[in-house]
């Protein structure tokens, strides 16, 4: 049996990672219409990319790299047209006040605030936090982002502390 | 689950959030790919149309103006505009070259920023510079041809050079400022790479 075709690979990726790609688009774009545009751009980039797929990395790594790279290009274009400044994880930690941890909000509100937080982050920090939330380990995050292992570990440590402080302060199991 | 941390719960909530379940069939993808190509085509067409306007306007000047200096300036402006169009086309082509998932996110992001930085840093070489000789010669030609006393000619020439110089200086300065900001981002990314 021969190698899967470009269309077959795309179908497999879309079936396996469709919902994750939706979450990724949500993390990059607040506006619903633009988010749909971005998601379509990601699917198109993915389909085009499979003409180049050579199996040097896993399908998952490939899919996330293409999706993040497409979203970053989209973001660069938006920033050129005057969209707001982005911050790093370190900046978020520094500016963290008591505002966010004062109540154990419902899951939906927590998710909304989490999405809002992710959307303010610089692309690299956004990629790491998203990968972490998708349940990836440090090695996979390094493979997707290109970050050195030590930097991934530092960022994950910061993310965990940030999430604990921002979303669980005051909650019974925090 | 007793061993589950609050972060794990948040991660689970993130993964289980309801989605819109947007799907794209292969027909949708191909339609979108066609639209993408058309967008590229229209972007190129707009650039060529702008160049065509410059060529047409200075082509008319070439025919109308009796001053050989102004006419030589027109020829140089047309040549400069064609060179700028070629550079825009070349840069746009390198932008749309897909790399798929071969490149990790840091490398891809850095390369995108470097490409933009280079375009801004070298703006004199590929955008402003090629237009300068033609514009200077054209202004001189216009001034020489004006039927006014020499001191007024000199004054009007100085005003035109000052205005053109100020515009070019401002464009170059804004581009350099943009390039410096991009360089800071590039340095940040380089420090993090494997």
Architecture overview:
The complex is a heterodimer of chains A (174) and B (194). Chain A is built from eight helices and no strands. With 174 residues, chain A is mostly helical. Chain A has two domains: 6-80, RNA polymerase sigma factor, region 2, helix turn helix motif (Rna Polymerase Sigma Factor, Chain: A, Orthogonal Bundle); 89-168, Arc Repressor Mutant, subunit A (Orthogonal Bundle). Mean pLDDT of chain A is 81; it is low at 97-104 and 170-174. Chain B is mostly helical and 194 residues long. Chain B has one domain (29-96, 105-188). Helices cover 81% and strands 0% of the residues of chain B. Chain B is built from seven helices and no strands. Chain B has helices at 6-15, 26-64, 68-95, 105-121, 123-128, 132-145, 150-192. In chain B, helix 2 runs antiparallel to helix 3, helix 4 (105-121) runs antiparallel to helix 7 and helix 6 (132-145) runs antiparallel to helix 7 (150-192). The longest helix of chain B is centred in the C-terminal third of the chain and has 43 residues, at 150-192. The radius of gyration of chain B is 26 Å and the shape is elongated. Chain B starts with 5 loop residues before the first helix and ends with a helix. The model of chain B has no long low-confidence stretch (mean pLDDT 85). The interface between A and B is large, with 63 and 38 residues.
Helix content range of the residues of chain B, please? Answer: over 70%
**Tally of domains of chain A:** 2
Give the largest interface: A-B, 63 and 38 residues
> How many β strands of chain B by DSSP?
0
Point out poorly predicted stretches of chain B.
Answer: none
Question: What structural class should be given to the helix and strand makeup of chain B?
Answer: mainly alpha
Query: In DSSP terms, counting alpha (H) and pi (I) runs of 4 or more, how many helices of chain B?
Result: 7
Tell me, what's the shape of chain A? globular
CATH class of the largest domain in chain A: Mainly Alpha
Biggest sheet overview of chain A: none
Fraction of residues in H or I helices of chain A? 55-70%
CATH architecture of the largest domain in chain A: Orthogonal Bundle
Total count of domains of chain B: 1
According to CATH, the fold-level topology of the largest domain in chain A is Arc Repressor Mutant, subunit A
* Residue share in β-strands of chain B: under 5%
* Structure class of chain A: mainly alpha
Distance between the termini of chain B: 37 Å
Count up the helices of chain A.
8
